[in-house]
Each structure stands twice: as C-alpha cells, then as structure tokens.
Amino acid sequence: MNRIQESMNKIQASEELKKNTLQYLEKQQKEQSPRRGFRIRFVLAACCILAFLLGIGGYSVYIKPVSYISIDVNPSIELGINRFEKVVSVVAYNQDGQDILQHLSLKNISYIQAIDKLLQEESYDKFLTEDSLLIFTVISDRSDTIIEKINTNQDLWLYDALTYTSDKTCMEEAHQHEMSFGKYRVYIELSQYDESITVEDCHGMTIGEMQDRIETCRHEGTENREENQESYQEHHEKHHKNKH
Amino acid sequence: MKSTEDLNRVMDAYADMIRRICFVHLKNKHDTEDVFQNVYMKYLLYEGTFESSEHEKAWFVRVTINACTDWLRYFSRRKWMPLEMIREEEEVLDSMSSEVLEAVLELPEKYRNVIYLYYYEEYSAVEIAKILEKKENTIYTWLSRAKDMLRKKLGGEWK
C-alpha cells in the first residue's frame, strides 16, 4: 500500500453523513414522486390537448367536402367528397333516393367505390332499366379528373351513363327547390327548349323522361325550323314569282 | 425511481470514495456534505443503466469530480485552504498522513484528481483519461508533474 492510499484510507464518510444523506434522499424521493407524477400527468394532458386540437383540425379537414357528385336516375343522390377523395356526405333529394340510403352506407369510402356500391345495390338496380338514363354531374375544381375517373371505370360502361359539370350557384338554386343539382341541370336544359316546364313538373319526372322531352323538343325544334325554312323558301319563291 | 436497497448499496459501495474526492477538492466538511448529497441526488435522478460495476464506479467518480468543480466555481471567491480540511480530520490522521495529504491538497486541482485516481483508486492513465474526458497524453503529463511536485515536498520516498 502506498502512502497516499494509507493516508487516504483514513478519510472516510462518517456514519452520520451517510445517514443524513439517506434521509435526505428518502425525503427527496417522496417529494419527487408526486412532482414527477404531476409532470407526467401534465405532459400527458398537454399531449392529449395537442392531439385533440390536431384531431379537430384533421377531422374538420376530413369532413369538409370539396367536390360533389350528383347521381340521378330517378333516385337523386348527392355525394360530398373531401380532399382525400373519400365520400363524407350523402344526401337523397327524393323519396326513391331516401329509400335506398336507408339500407346503404356510402361514407368514408372513395367516390368510385361508393358509385360502384350504389349501382350494385339491388334497390337501386331496379331503376336502371332500358328506358332509364343515368347521369353524373360534378361540381369540383378538378371536375375533369373526376369525370375521367368515372368515364374510365369499366363497371360503369354497362350503364351508358352521361357526365356533366355544374357549379355551386346552380347547386344552391337546386337545393332551394329541393332538387339535386344534377337533375336541376337537366331541368335548365329542358327549360331552354320548353318554356312551359316548371321545377315542380320535373320533380315528378325521371331523368330518362326529362331527357326524352329534351330530345322531342329538339326534334320538334328541328322540324319546326325545317318547316319554317320550307315555308320561308316557299314564301320567298312565291314572292319572287309574283315579283317577276 | 430507485429502491431503498439500491440506495443503501451505492451508499456502502461509494460513500468513502465520494468523501475522499470531496476531501481532495473541497474546503470544509460543510461543503463536503452538500456535494456528497448532490452526488447521490444525481444518482437518484439518473435514469440510465450501467453496463458493469466498473462503469457505475467511474460514473460516480466523474459525477463527484464535476460536482466538486461546480461547487468551487459557484463559490470561487473563497480561498482554497487545504489545512482547514486536514484540521477537520485531525482526529483520524496521524502526522505522516497529515503531511502526505497536505502535500496532495496543495497541488493544483487537476493534479489532485489524477493523483487520487491513480494512486488511491488505482485507475490507469487510460481510464483516468476516459473519466476526466481528457487526452491520455494530458493525463501522463499531469501525473508526471504532480509526482515531481510531491517529490519536492515529501522527499524521494514519498510513495
């Protein structure tokens, strides 16, 4: 043993120092426990609040529709689609639509999945007859993409569906008349050919019937124009003959 | 959270060593008691694990030296008076030990550390370098200078 070891060996922690320190540690440990518990609870609470706020923020973004698709045959159903292309709202605008939605949930799936699911639904399928017409009307900043997706969905080719776009002003007007904006767009088109038609008349008509009426009006319009043109030509020719 | 058994264990294992490191650095028993408690408090709050008993011991050495340094820095206006520490221990120290320890305590702080760790704890220079986070060459230099200083004070046969 060297002299330093020999000398240092005599320097020892007294029993009193050890005892005082252990008592001090015990006291600190008792005080630390609730304080640490409080700190943990505080951190947990802060995390919960943060998660809650983020959750609210995320949830509000999730539930906000940014695009709309109106699906009309006779049942008129509007889908609200969020920025993640998920259906977040489903509203029926006539009794047929309401009856279908009673048994069918279309929320929280992609709009293509929702459309497929709707068309495969037995209670919906009965409206898709040879005389019926299925139309999709889209309101969105990226309606081209949505329409392209609908048109390229092979499952929909069977139905010869037509696709249109509309805007939010039309949608607001449509909803004031308790009509889907898809059907309302057809009404606007029809009213251009037939001034006597009213929104109330259209409430009782299917899309197929409205489209037939448009075709008839177009046809009649063409015939009328042809007749008018013929009578004008006849008149012109007579006038010309008389003149000569 | 440390158990009472664990606190008793580290008290038995390291109390004397911590007391000696405090003795080498601090000015009086009162300071020693505060730093001694601080070191154990640091252990109480330490949440890491030790790979071995050597690792644990080295942790206590480093924490005690740092605690002493911090304490001295905090009370830097107070003059370093090694004789005061010796006097406080006069009951247990004979004249030979008093002479040796006085010579050690009169060394500059960094030399006191290496002399204590090298001659008392019998750490190698490499181990001391790790504990004090210094280069090995620095430790060799400090050891050499400290030995020279002790030799001058205590004579050729100081060890």
Please trace the helix and strand order of chain A, writing H or E for each element.
HHEEEHHHEHHEHHHH
Helix-strand makeup class of chain A: alpha+beta
Given as residue ranges, the uncertain stretches of chain A (5+ residues, pLDDT < 50) are 239-244
Largest sheet of chain B: none
Q: In what order do the strands lie side by side in the largest sheet of chain A?
A: 3-2-1-4-5
Task: Say what oligomer this is.
Answer: heterodimer
Which H/E pattern describes the elements of chain B? Answer: HHHHHHHH
Rg of chain B (CA only): 16 Å
Notes on the structure:
Chain A has helices at 3-8, 15-63, 95-101, 111-120, 122-125, 143-151, 154-157, 168-176, 181-193, 199-203, 207-243, and strands at 67-72, 76-81, 87-92, 135-139, 162-165. Chain A is of the alpha+beta class and 244 residues long. In chain A, a hairpin with a 5-residue loop joins β2 and β3 (87-92). Residues 239-244 of chain A have low confidence and may be disordered. The model of chain B has no long low-confidence stretch (mean pLDDT 86). In chain B, α1 packs across α2 and α6 crosses α8 (136-154). With 159 residues, chain B is mainly α. Chain B contains eight helices and no strands. The N and C termini of chain B lie far apart (43 Å). Chain B has helices at 4-25, 29-45, 53-74, 82-88, 95-105, 109-120, 125-132, 136-154. The longest helix of chain B is centred in the N-terminal third of the chain and has 22 residues, at 4-25. Helix content of chain B is 74%, strand content 0%. The interface between A and B is medium-sized, with 23 and 36 residues.
Secondary-structure map:
The complex is a heterodimer of chains A (about 240) and B (about 160).
Chain A: H1 3-8, H2 15-63, E1 67-72, E2 76-81, E3 87-92, H3 95-101, H4 111-120, H5 122-125, E4 135-139, H6 143-151, H7 154-157, E5 162-165, H8 168-176, H9 181-193, H10 199-203, H11 207-243
Parallel strand pairs in A: 4-5
Antiparallel strand pairs in A: 1-2, 1-4, 2-3
Helix pairs in contact in A: 8-9, 9-11
Chain B: H1 4-25, H2 29-45, H3 53-74, H4 82-88, H5 95-105, H6 109-120, H7 125-132, H8 136-154
Helix pairs in contact in B: 1-2, 1-3, 2-3, 6-8, 7-8
